[in-house]
Amino acid sequence: MLNDHTTPSELDWPPIEPFSDPSPESQPHTYDATDGLPLPNDTTNRGDWTLEPNVRRLEFLSNFTDTKGLASSFDCGSLEQRAMFIDCLGHQYVDSQLDATVAEKSHHIVAAIERSSELLARRTSCDSGWPESLKTACYDFFAPSQLQFHLAAYWALWHPNCPIIHKPTFAIAESPSTLLAVMALLGACLSPVTGHRESALLWLDPVEEWVFSAPELTDDPLRTESSADNFAKLQERLDALRAAYCVILLQTWEGAEAAKRRARRSRYTDIIGIFRSVCNEDISHGGLSRYIQGPSRVQAWREFVLREELIRTLTYVVLLDTAYVIFNNTPPRMAPGEARFSLSCPELCFQADSVSAWSDAIQSYALSELGQRQPLVHQVLSMLWADSLSVVDEVLLRSMSSLNLFILVHPLHVQLFHARCHPLPTSQTALVRRALDAWRRIWLERSDPPGLEERTPTRAADCWKRLGFARHAPEFWCLADLILNSSESMHAQSYDQTNGFGGKSLISQLLSRYDESDMSQVHKLVDLFGSMQLATTPHDDQAGAPRVSRELSAERLKDGAVLPRTMLYPSLISTSTSVTMKQVDELQGEDGSIGPASAAFRAPAGGNAGARPLRLPPNTTLEKFNDFMSAVQEIVGIDNATVVSSDAELQQEDYMEPSKAHDMYYIAEKEYFVSSAVVAPRNVADVQAIMKLCNEFVIPVWPFSIGRNVGYGGSAPRVPGSVGLDMGRNMRKVLEVNEDGAFAVVEPGVTFMDLHNYLVERNLRDKLWIDTPDLGGGSVIGNTVERGVGYTPYGDHWMMHCGMEVVLPDGSLWRSGMGGLPNPKADPNARPEDQAWNETFGLFNYGFGPYNDGIFTQSSLGIVVKMGIWLMVNPGGYQSYMITFPKDSDLHKAIEIIRPLRVGMVLQNVPTMRHILLDAAVMGNRASYKKSPELLTDDELDEIAKKLNLGRWNFYGAVYGPEPVRQVMLQVIKQSFLSIEGAKYFEPQDQPDNLVLQTRHDTLQGIPSTTELRWVDWLPNGSHLFFSPIAKVSGDDAVAQYEVTRKRCEEAKFDFIGTFVIGMREMHHIVCIVFDRKDPDSRRRAHWLIRTLIDDAAERGWGEYRTHLAVMDQIAKTYSFNDNAQLKLNEKIKEALDPKGILSPGKNGVWPKHMNAEDYKVPV
Fold it and tell me: Is 712 a catalytic residue?
């Protein structure tokens, strides 16, 4: 039995006989370290789908996407094979003469891991030192003999899959400790010895921290031309890059879930920067004659090795980007044009174990076409994309190695990813088809240059020379070809530039989740394709190349269920038969290690102090404004103060990358609601200083968290020319998550996605849930102080807030509730904002005396810089559901059923009653349902509902708690609602094709998404306003509101889109007014519609709870009881707290005394 103390010499394996040269009589076999099957000696590692059924079944990719860990995923061999290889290679590698050198390296590694572990412990507030037992375990793992054993495992088992280090010249003494540590971890993770992998996993995080904090790992520009000084610097940078790259591989395939995300989203982004610092010029060997004719062959070999290692490392960095695209459905982060390095040299050159062997190989390479031309990778890609390959180029490509052809198939997947996200016209998909056909033809007809033939190792001691998983390149080609077939079938269905496809491609349906650590959705796709029988049949296309046709011999999935032919040919798929399981969500977590979507927190386009703004603040000269901006820059720094000096920022109209200076969904002219400048404070002290400065200059300021308050004005100020205060760009930390108290404390830039991912990364999601609104990219603080809602039992966000820290208009600081009581453990010498809050700050809202929190919601009285929010304790069970009602007239009875169930808490969460068009708009644009501009009729609405397997009204809810509790609740819910004729009950598994139901299933358990934003695309250049009146939960009120709002919508020539959101005792009726922002008439009609609806609602006693900038004054005036007593009170408080009126003047109709609302009347 293998154990931690087994040494290579003790492995109980039979002696390995050297493989003899092949002869017809003996029929010897080589040992293939992938599947354990003996292969004929004349068989190379080159896959050929015309011969190998396993290639056509995508067996390697199926296993790759279905297993975890390096050993199971890559070509590393079975347990027995790994033991044999290490035994053979280990005898070569363990050298007692190196004991002193290795001991020094071991000591350095352990000391560095100890420092990194302590740093990580302090970072997680767990500063308990490094236990002696852990230190002993680390010394045992990296002891000299063990370190050499792990390195032997690296060479034997991992190196073939990632040949970026030159084994013949590798020396422990000359290698940096970081690289040795990472190589040892890779070897240990593949070791056949029991306990090695488990021990290695202990050191992944501290080694990652060590590697990525190394000063050598920098993105400072570096020149790569030959010189003694450049040689040393390049070697140092290369070693750091390789160590970082290998750490990412380890964490991606062996790390915990949080580490996988961190590696993919954050660490890989770091090494892309380092890649670019090196690959800032074309990199190749240049004329190979310099190696052959130089004065010193040893020095020439050394220079060759360094440059080839660099080329291969850069190659594998790019390959990892594509691997994330293929297997994690992650958008690519690198462009093909960045591959400014040559192809890898032939393996005989790189694997030569002596100067003389290398010299012979390099001379053969210099005589070949490939060696003479040495095209860069991006140039070879251009050859593949060409309308037709020239004879010279085709001869060149046919001489490429298997590794280089493996490299070239990957960019095709990147192109297919882009085509899937943004479908291409047929003419452009034809380019991808030509490239695929050319690649396949080259693979089948390739031949090695004379003297450089690829050879399968014949001795186990040479196992490090074998070709790794790159030999499965044909499977990667097959997968790309099948994906393209799906895309081409969609084009055969129907495509136009305006309306897109009538249905969805199979790929888009199966790969619906983006940037997933789990490869299960890719595995489903691979297995689906693998279940097809692929037959190679000659077919002459334009280039005369053979094509691969596919037929299904047994249309069955692995579980025996019949596979409908529509699953193979998406042209037969309509929206109603989609198989999308979850939302397409391009917005990942947005806080450093959580995710890379930093575009949401970018600096706006514009100039620095001295630039002229598009709009000056009111009553402010340009000279005064310039003085103000200069003073602001002194506070926050030049990078955090931007003058909106051109219309560049006004072109930002994307939720994912929101504008920081105007209303992206503008209803007035685009240039009206515009800031003069945008300032991003770095901390609370900056906010205080800015407020004092605004008072000094009497310049109005408009705070916003991120700019995603779409439908209500985004980041735009009510008073044009105000200075936008971007609270989210720098202040976006989760300050605390209190597990016992079930609350979090956050800064303004923390999104719902961030907070959710924070819990997931720290393994708290199984204990605590957040509540999220429809769109998870918004600020937790921003949404809460605007009194936004979500859909779990914690759906009333303001009700669930607890404790605030607020900067008042004069720059003073205030804490609410129990925050007013000092924490006796706090440092009294620290600044007030840095003092620890009272331990009951997030537990009890009210404190002592008057309760003031509410005046800071939807107000202009203070800036919330920190806030506590209660989190929902995992209820112990959860079931979402949908109930459909077939008739428009069912609304009345359904609402009457809802009221007692909601008040009685049988309906535990915040449920929604959605109109058919809201769901339909998520699943397709208007043109996909009706081509003419005429309004949709009731008959057409019924037809849409039938097509989507929905009702005219669709009720979404959930039950929470242990199964017995859920079953009791569901029994009452079903019995109540199914009394309505034609009502139907569904759970998510009943309708896997229902994108809305699948998304609500996530939302109702606090998992954020951005899928619901799709309904904005109902019209071209889609924008929206929300009209949001409050009403009783009664059938009469629901029907009355629906009739009034639908009638007015149709008068304005808009289809009605809306939903009823059921609170504890009231309903928010959210009417979604979707308009074309680039059509002046559409904007005019939308503006008329919302102004008319406000008056209609007020006449019936319905008031809005939240609104857009353009109609704030109108709504404020409708709350007119007792001669506008409410507005007058708000104005008195405003005058008391903000006498100069500099904070958000005009917000929700509250104006300072010196400003006349009529002067800022919104143009219609």
Answer: yes
